[in-house]
């Protein structure tokens, strides 16, 4: 779109019609970047209409030129792609069953997750949930503090509904730190007692989120193993 001319974006995703600044209502904006809240926690926002072929480093450089985004942390950068997926929050329950026909389960990219690892993870969960149902057990859901649980929660209801051309809009998502519930207390100081700022603070928070996720994943896998039926083995011999 940008290749068609400097004014093109003003009449596309950055169209300012109908948007006003309540602090300066008399000033009509030239263009507006819309930030759409993407999770219920209010920690993740989507820059509407910013699919691009730019390299990631160039995206970061340009996006930080936008007033208010100078120190933004980017959970995921833009790209061009086409994705076919279900409106999972409306159609699927928390164990990936089709609400209208619970005997059917969906897994992988069609559920609204993006990426090979994410698709495999949701497939693993769908298999576990199906096995639990077959054994007459209640499926054991991973906690939202784990990567599996955070992604599952997003595609089955953790997103924020937005209006797109008069319709409710659900957008696919890779797993990222923006999907995780916040820490009870973010690290403020390093191992040597130094006060953390900027990138160091962000990295420390991500390490803490990762450590919590791994610990909670261990708890979930142990709980799942404890509830599994004993394995059957076949012995040798002529009997």
Question: What topology does this entry show?
Answer:
Layout (H helix, E strand, L loop, with lengths): L34 E3 L7 E3 L8 H8 L24 H4 L5 E2 L2 E5 L10 H19 L12 H12 L3 E3 L2 E3 L28 H30 L12
Antiparallel strand pairs: 1-2, 3-4, 5-6
Question: Can you describe this structure?
Answer:
The chain has 239 residues and is α+β, with helices and mostly antiparallel strands. The chain has a domain of 40 residues. 31% of the residues lie in helices and 8% in strands. It contains five helices and six strands; from the N terminus they run ββααββααββα. Strands 1-2 form a two-stranded antiparallel ribbon. A two-stranded antiparallel sheet has the order 3-4. A hairpin with a 2-residue loop joins strand 5 and strand 6.
Please provide a brief summary of the model.
It is built from five helices and six strands.
């Amino acid at each position: 779109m940008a290749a068609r001319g400097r004014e093109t974006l003003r009449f596309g995703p950055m169209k300012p019609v109908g948007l006003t600044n309540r602090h300066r209502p008399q000033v009509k904006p030239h263009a507006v970047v819309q930030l759409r809240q993407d999770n219920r926690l209010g920690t993740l926002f989507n820059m509407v209409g910013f699919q691009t072929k730019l390299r990631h480093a160039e995206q970061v450089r340009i996006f930080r030129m936008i007033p208010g985004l100078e120190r933004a942390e980017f959970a995921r950068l833009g790209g061009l792609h086409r994705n076919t997926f279900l409106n999972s929050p409306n159609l699927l329950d928390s164990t990936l069953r089709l609400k209208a026909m619970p005997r059917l389960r969906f897994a992988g990219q069609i559920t609204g997750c993006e990426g090979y690892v994410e698709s495999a993870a949701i497939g693993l969960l769908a298999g576990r949930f199906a096995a639990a149902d077959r054994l007459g057990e209640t499926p054991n859901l991973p906690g939202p503090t784990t990567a599996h649980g955070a992604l599952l929660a997003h595609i089955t209801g953790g997103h924020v509904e937005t209006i797109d051309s008069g319709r409710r809009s659900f957008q696919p998502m890779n797993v990222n730190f923006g999907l995780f519930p916040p820490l009870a207390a973010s690290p403020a100081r390093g191992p040597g007692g130094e006060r953390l700022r900027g990138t160091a603070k962000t990295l420390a928070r991500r390490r803490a989120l990762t450590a919590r996720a791994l610990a909670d994943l261990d708890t979930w896998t142990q709980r799942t193993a404890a509830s599994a039926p004993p394995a059957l083995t076949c012995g040798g011999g002529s009997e």
